[in-house]
Amino acid sequence: MSNFRIFAPLAIVMYIIVPFLFSGNDYLMGMIATALIIAGIALAWALLGNLGGMVSFGHAAFFGVGAYTSAVLTMDYNVPVFLAMIIAGFGASLASVFMMPALRLHGPYFALAILAYAHIFMILATEMTSITGGAAGLLSIPNLPVFMGFDFGTKLGGYIVILNIVSLALVVYHLIRRSTYGLALKAMHDSELATRIVGVPATQLKAIMLVVSAFITGCVGAFNAHFINFLDPEYAFSGEWTVIPIVAAIFGGYRTLSGPVLGALFIYLADQLVFKSLLPQGHQLILGALLGGMILLSPSGLLPIITNMFKRFSKKGDAQHVES
Questions:
Q1: Model confidence, pTM
Q2: 118-154 pLDDT, tens per residue?
Q3: What is the CATH number of the domain that holds 251?
Q4: Cα 98 → chain centroid
């Protein structure tokens, strides 16, 4: 099944059906927007892991840097919120440049090195009290603005903003994957040494994927800062901004385009709306069991299961059409 046949129904649901059904329910719209925040990070993580071949345990660093960059720009320098969010993406990309020495490492060593960088950024945010507010954090971060007569500071407005960020990230991911750079990166997965021999600049391509992944995550972090209007280092650089998106990406199918988004929506909404009511004190256990079952039964994730279901239904429909 083509990417379009998966993405088109998902886009219709998210852009039309969800606002139509739930625009009057701020609680649900806020929950779905939060799920999309996780989806954006999951997509950025999957881009780095699938194309760049690098597993990261430190995307919370990019999330936190993006959040603080946008918050400080809007609070201290009166930069318009949407412009500040874009600059925050570049700020996160700049943070990834400082992580470039870790590209010399492979496998778990790279993942642990990135995790160490995330802790360093959290310490810096705690100590730079004159800029970040230190451990006390930042209060009253500006809301998303009114633009062209529409108030993006509402739950519905925030949902539309983060949905557009995730959609643009999907488009970027798709274009990179189909480009010559994407083909070279896929070839590197089979044999990095062989691709280096034929002249593929492996390290440079990995660096580009790290920068792009950081930019997406930084923009998502910036959105979150203006969505909740509060930041502190422990929250902005929390390991949950790494762990939950990884779980979502793997559950949905991190080697697919829409899998991380579907995984994030299912994992977060099922956890908050269903699992918490069933097991308030240990609902994460259900998530763990669900992820373990998915890895055992469908290592490629949730999206291939949905794809196979669509294929079966389409075959049945074709068969019935022929019989009639």
A1: 0.91
A2: 999 999 999 999 999 999 999 999 999 999 889 999 9
A3: 1.10.3470
A4: 21
